[in-house]
Design brief:
mainly alpha, SRF-like, 3 domains, 2 strands, elongated, TF_MADSbox_sf, DNA-binding transcription factor activity
Length: 163
């Protein structure tokens, strides 16, 4: 009799499904036992049936094996988290360094330095930015002069009123 490859999908017939579960569960428990004996491995296996029954195998204490598993996975997660944090900080630092370089280049151009490599469009854009800045600076300067003038007029009025 030739066995064919079993298609991996849910067995629809409940009786066939239960028979397959029982046979495969037995084979799985046997393999777990063989692995622990032949290779001196610490093995713990937990299986719940579709009806909720528990089947288990442990080459040593199930509790100790589970605690060992928790410890190992926690340590690995901790290492992965630290490594991911380091990589994120490196990437952030690299991104910030590039932004800083770009800002320094922009500042240099706004101050009229390193303009040789600029295209006509970049130079026109710089000119517009500088003109806008100059308008803002002049407006602020005018406001301050007006405030000082107002303050001086008040003082002048107070002096004139006091005489």
């Amino acid at each position: 009799m030739v066995r064919g490859k079993t298609q991996m999908k849910r067995i629809e017939n409940p009786t066939s499904r239960q028979v397959t579960f029982s046979k495969r569960r037995g084979g799985l428990l046997k393999k777990a036992f063989e692995l622990s004996v032949l290779c001196d491995a610490e093995v713990a296996l937990v299986v719940f049936s579709p009806r909720g029954r528990l089947y288990e195998f442990a080459s040593s204490s199930m509790k100790n094996t589970i605690e060992r598993y928790k410890t190992v996975t926690k340590d690995n997660l901790g290492r992965q988290t630290v490594q991911q944090d380091i990589e994120k900080v490196k990437a952030d630092a690299e991104g910030l360094s590039k932004k800083l370089d770009a800002l320094e280049a922009c500042k240099s151009k706004l101050l009229g330095q390193n303009l040789e490599e600029c295209s006509i469009e970049e130079l026109q854009s710089l000119e517009v930015k500088i003109e806008r800045s100059l308008l803002g600076i002049r407006a602020m300067k005018t406001r301050r002069f007006e405030e000082q003038l107002s303050t001086l007029r008040q003082k002048g009025d107070e002096v004139a009123a006091g005489q």
